[in-house]
Amino acid sequence: MACAAVMIHGLLRSSLGTVCTQAASRRRLTSSALRHLTLTSIMKSKRKTDHLERTANVSRREVVSTAKVCGAAAESSSVKRLQLLVADKDFSFKAGQWVDFFIPGVSVVGGFSICSSPRLLEQERIIELAVKYANHPPALWIHNQCTLDSEVAVRVGGEFFFDPQPADASRNLVLIAGGVGINPLLSILRYAADLHRDRVNKGSGYEVGTIKLFYSAKNTSELLFKQNILDLVNEFPEKIACSLHVTKQTTQISAELQPYLTEGRITEKEIRDHISKETLFYICGPPPMTDFFSKQLENSHVPKEHICFEKWW
């Protein structure tokens, strides 16, 4: 769950075990229903770790839309991936943002980063989330009670995003992820790939620079979206590269992953080798990780406006 961000200026679709096949009618929460749901959630949210409290000063869109669960699959032993069908045409997001996640009957509001590209929403009215198991009520509901056709409500928020305009200068991207911090960075990676496809197919639009993803987890089973990432690397080898890291691997590493895998943490030197005036850095992971790399980049004289980070707890 993403919950704190510093803002700079403004992939291939994952296949789930169950695919959305039904169209949904346009749904919007009435103002009274939304007001009741939000106020009730805030009044009952007493813990300082609650999403609404942590992000009270973060910008949000006004649109709150109902959504229907139309796909679900296990991304790992502890992470469940959802597809949500959002029929409301006023609902939109920028790659890297999260949603307030309202669940009927659950007083606490969740906050989950979107891991799909905005293009999937534009084309199919679908967004994807990947939620790690936790004792927090929204995560518990997703893992233990959520079923196909369950209805929820979502609202977009967050100041951590990649949203270049067609005439903007080309930028290289360095994405640094730890654990489930991959979620918003995968959205950015997928969107960058969509923009590059547009440029190749149409000969116009934003020109994406090179993209390097650094991604660390305890072991290969906790490296989420491995195949999606490698598919993009193989589709655009001249544009996209990845460096996968594991810190507590105990089993044999598959031959497919070996060329991309390093045992050990992401190092300062690896990141420093990618510093240039054309490069933007996006970091998402546990607070110690985001603090470390953002500080190291500042110490290496990377302008603060070229560093965007988001912490999750």
Given this structure, which CATH class of the largest domain is correct?
Answer: Alpha Beta
Strand content: 25-35%
- Our count of helices gives 8
Extract low-pLDDT stretches. Answer: 6-27, 38-48
Total individual domains: 2
Our measurement of the CA-to-CA distance between the termini, rounded to an integer number of angstroms, reads: 7 Å
Oligomer: single chain
Q: How many strands, which pairing sense, and closed or not: the largest β-sheet? A: 7 strands, mixed
Q: Which topology of the largest domain does CATH recognise?
A: Rossmann fold
Label the CATH architecture of the largest domain. 3-Layer(aba) Sandwich
Number-wise, the strands total: 13
Helix fraction bin = 25-40%
- Using only C-alpha atoms, the radius of gyration works out to 19 Å
Strand order of the largest sheet: 1-13-12-8-9-10-11
**CATH homology superfamily name of the largest domain:** Nucleotide-binding domain of ferredoxin-NADP reductase (FNR) module
- Give the averaged pLDDT, no decimals: 88
Structural class: alpha/beta
Give me the strand/helix succession: EHHEEEEHEHEEHEHEEHEHE
Quick one: overall form?
globular
Structural features, described:
By secondary structure, this protein is α/β, with parallel strands linked by helices. It has 2 domains: 60-157, Translation factors (Elongation Factor Tu (Ef-tu), domain 3); 171-311, Nucleotide-binding domain of ferredoxin-NADP reductase (FNR) module (Rossmann fold), CATH 3.40.50. 26% of the residues lie in helices and 26% in strands. It is globular. The protein starts with a strand and ends with a strand. Mean pLDDT is 88; it is low at 6-27 and 38-48.
